[in-house]
């Protein structure tokens, strides 16, 4: 009889405004008896698992996000002096069917194993649709009577071992195929010959599934005998060693031959295309050896990762299937037990130290040595999940010493977007710590993570017991407490967003960014004021309100982030009213043109920038007014800089309104001006386009300092005229230059009028170091030989 476990009143507990809530108590009669992902599976938007194995019975169950339904019970039995235990697990699925295995172990009176029986079942989620397909009984304790999953490591499987609705699996001695019927469950043959036990599952490529057998042969199949063939018949594939998922039309595996020993091989699915790819140790294998581990052959969509070992000397490598880019990315003298989860072009993996204090660590890599970094330590290795492109996991906040031992303290729910500064505990579900000098309690130990319908579920403890929890990552600002971005209660999720999160700022707020803040795709419909932190964007920024930088920065992270084009006509822009800049990472030819809708408090002066030269980070801001010329010009100065000087080839477009043009400015002869080496220089410019606003472009720019728009034909000279004083760059970091035609003295005042610094100037160029000044705006005043003030203005320390 089907049992429905309804939601209890206790399931309505919420934490502040967070979307973390209890769904159901987690007990022996209302839960699943495992935390291993191999023993659970998502099928038809429901979570399938089972109760823990017992002498009496084990139950197949499913969970739809609110209720748990028992599908079928599998009883154990007593037979005279013999007893048995029942286990259910090792789920797998095809395009429309879900499969699982039950294993009954029969014990003698002295608790030795008499025999074990495994059964293969298929289910559609109903009791009537749950059918037995195969039974395998063997004497003794053999856990692998039937091997159903596509990995021998249990967790984080890729579920590739099927073609259409035909599942490829194995018994203890034979590779099998099933279509979900008894008649269609049979040995798989190649040229009429049964294939030995499936050794290591592999990828799907070109409509076929590839796998190796225990005799070292490589096979492909479409699920039929006639469509199954040996790719390599001799013992090439290293038995029980991992194979990769496909990348760029090929897959990789550990192969053997007499010349190279065990090395890295590649295959495009043909005999001719199956060959040695890379020798990690040239010649017969006498040095480093392969390491049979889940991180071997992990695929993040851009790289394949593998690990080498020689005793305790272990290394993590990556390749993009070119020899030139096959390289070591990390030394790993400690043990790296498994791949965690994958993102787009990103891998997470863990490292357990093999000596005290026995810490665990999580690492992130983009496939390069410089992009491989630790993001967390004191990590509990048995539970983690990738949800909305961020990593969720259980972690001990610290280690507590009890006697001569160290134990994990306060094991709670943590989150990382891949950046160390955004790796943090997000919920302390069971607050507390030591309950006595020798007992650590009050740790929720979240585990069994799974995702249904874009909601993260997991099991954790609190003071009332164990519960199934759900968490919805809704990063919509609600301003419940105040207008500060950093306050977690101001977000529907109960957590401030990270660089991988989708952020929504509705209208009706005046949001204050009071710390370094993050978001992937960010929709802004309320003004943002950066008071004491930078805003970091990992995807797109859609402006429906102004963002005011003050002395902070807006950073477009990675190689794809941008400010959506529609914002250029929306009337909203980024106000560069202080030292703050908009920074674009990885600007190169592949990234193309980036549009920056920037302006001052009173004027909108957008730029567009592209770089066909060396990839670099570019910074931009704009201010009202233009220095060191009295001729026809637009009264705006764009400060544009690059992080690393040299190698750039930039095309730049500048925008302005007619109200910003001085009286002698002529659009017909306008050019982009570049202030360099003490004078304004003409860049290779096009013609002015548009009708208020106007735009002009320049090409082939290779150095950076202030830019503006002006009429060079109206200038008397590009040199410094009598009594003219030039101050650049402005803003500056530590050093800046003052150029003038007579010996002078310059005084610097803060905005309150207090004198903070003075320097003696000589005729010509004077480089001043003002690293001792605090960041901010200063007034400078230059007095000539006669004591008269010959120049004054504002300068900004970044």
TrEMBL record:
Residues 1-18 form the signal peptide. Transmembrane segments: none annotated. Keywords: Signal. It comes from the Bacteria. InterPro entries: Secre_tail. Pfam families: Por_Secre_tail. Residues 727-792 form the Secretion system C-terminal sorting domain. NCBIfam families: Por_Secre_tail. This is T9SS type A sorting domain-containing protein. It comes from Chryseobacterium suipulveris.
């Amino acid at each position: 009889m089907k049992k429905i476990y309804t939601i209890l009143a206790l399931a309505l507990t919420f934490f502040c405004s967070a979307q973390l809530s209890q769904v159901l108590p987690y007990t022996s009669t209302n839960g699943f008896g495992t935390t291993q992902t191999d023993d659970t599976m998502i099928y038809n938007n429901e979570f399938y698992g089972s109760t823990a194995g017992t002498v009496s019975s084990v139950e197949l169950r499913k969970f739809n996000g609110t209720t748990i339904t028992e599908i079928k019970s599998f009883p154990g039995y007593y037979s005279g002096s013999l007893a048995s235990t029942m286990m259910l697990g090792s789920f797998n699925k095809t395009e429309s069917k879900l499969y699982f295995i039950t294993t009954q172990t029969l014990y003698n009176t002295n608790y030795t194993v008499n025999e074990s029986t495994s059964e293969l079942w298929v289910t559609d989620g109903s009791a009537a649709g749950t059918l037995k397909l195969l039974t395998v009984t063997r004497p003794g304790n053999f856990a692998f009577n039937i091997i159903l999953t596509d990995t021998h490591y249990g967790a984080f499987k890729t579920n590739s071992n099927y073609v259409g609705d035909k599942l490829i699996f194995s018994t203890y001695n034979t590779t099998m195929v099933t279509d979900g019927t008894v008649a269609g469950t049979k040995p798989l043959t190649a040229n009429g010959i049964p294939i030995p036990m499936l050794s290591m599952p592999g990828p799907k490529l070109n409509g076929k599934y590839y796998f190796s057998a225990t005799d070292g042969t490589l096979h492909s199949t479409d699920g039929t005998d006639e469509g199954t063939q040996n790719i390599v018949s001799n013992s090439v594939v290293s038995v029980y060693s991992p194979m990769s998922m496909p990348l760029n039309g090929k897959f990789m595996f550990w192969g053997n031959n007499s010349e190279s020993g065990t090395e890295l091989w590649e295959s495009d699915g043909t005999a001719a295309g199956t060959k040695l790819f890379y020798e990690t140790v040239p010649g017969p294998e006498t040095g480093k050896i392969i390491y049979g581990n889940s991180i071997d052959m992990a695929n993040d969509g851009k790289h394949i990762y593998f690990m080498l070992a020689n005793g305790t000397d272990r290394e993590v490598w990556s390749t993009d299937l070119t020899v030139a880019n096959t390289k070591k990315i990390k030394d790993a003298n400690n043990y790296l037990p498994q791949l965690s989860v994958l993102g787009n072009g990103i891998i997470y993996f863990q490292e357990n130290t093999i000596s005290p204090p026995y810490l665990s660590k999580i690492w992130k890599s983009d496939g390069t040595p410089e992009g491989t970094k630790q993001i967390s330590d004191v990590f509990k290795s048995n539970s983690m999940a990738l949800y909305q492109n961020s990593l969720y996991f259980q972690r001990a906040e610290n280690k507590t010493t009890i006697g001569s031992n160290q134990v994990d303290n306060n094991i709670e729910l943590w989150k990382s977007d891949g950046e160390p500064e955004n790796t943090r505990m997000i919920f302390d579900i069971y607050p507390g710590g030591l309950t006595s000098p020798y007992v650590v309690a009050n740790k929720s130990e979240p585990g069994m993570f799974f995702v249904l319908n874009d909601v993260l579920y997991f099991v954790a403890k609190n003071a009332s017991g164990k519960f199934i929890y759900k968490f919805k990552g809704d990063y919509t600002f609600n301003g419940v407490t105040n207008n500060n971005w950093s306050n977690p209660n101001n977000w529907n999720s109960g957590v401030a967003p990270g660089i991988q999160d989708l952020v929504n700022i509705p209208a009706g707020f005046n949001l204050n960014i009071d710390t370094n803040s993050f978001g992937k795709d960010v929709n802004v419909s309320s003004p943002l004021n950066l008071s004491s932190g930078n805003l970091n964007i990992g995807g797109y920024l859609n402006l429906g309100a102004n963002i005011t930088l003050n002395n902070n920065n807006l950073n477009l992270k990675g190689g794809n982030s941008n400010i959506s084009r529609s914002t250029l006509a929306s009337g909203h822009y980024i106000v560069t009213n202080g030292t703050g800049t908009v920074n674009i990472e990885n600007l190169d030819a592949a990234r193309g043109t980036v549009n920056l809708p920037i302006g001052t408090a009173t004027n909108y002066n957008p730029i567009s920038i592209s770089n066909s030269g060396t990839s670099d980070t570019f910074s931009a801001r704009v201010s009202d007014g233009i220095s060191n010329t009295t001729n026809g010009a637009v009264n705006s100065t764009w400060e544009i800089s690059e992080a690393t000087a040299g190698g750039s080839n930039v095309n730049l477009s500048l925008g302005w309104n007619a109200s910003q043009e001085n009286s002698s400015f002529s659009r017909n002869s306008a050019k982009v001006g570049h202030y360099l080496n003490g004078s304004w220089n003409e860049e290779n410019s096009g013609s002015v386009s548009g009708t208020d606003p106007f735009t002009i472009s320049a090409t082939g720019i290779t150095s950076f300092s202030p830019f503006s728009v002006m009429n060079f034909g109206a200038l008397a000279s590009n040199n410094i005229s009598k009594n003219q004083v030039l101050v650049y760059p402005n803003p500056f970091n530590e050093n800046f230059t003052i150029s003038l035609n007579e010996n002078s003295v310059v005084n610097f005042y803060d905005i309150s009028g207090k004198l903070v610094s003075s320097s003696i100037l000589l005729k010509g160029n004077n480089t001043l170091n003002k690293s001792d000044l605090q960041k901010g705006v200063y007034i400078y005043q230059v007095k000539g030989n006669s004591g008269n003030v010959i120049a004054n203005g504002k300068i900004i320390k970044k």
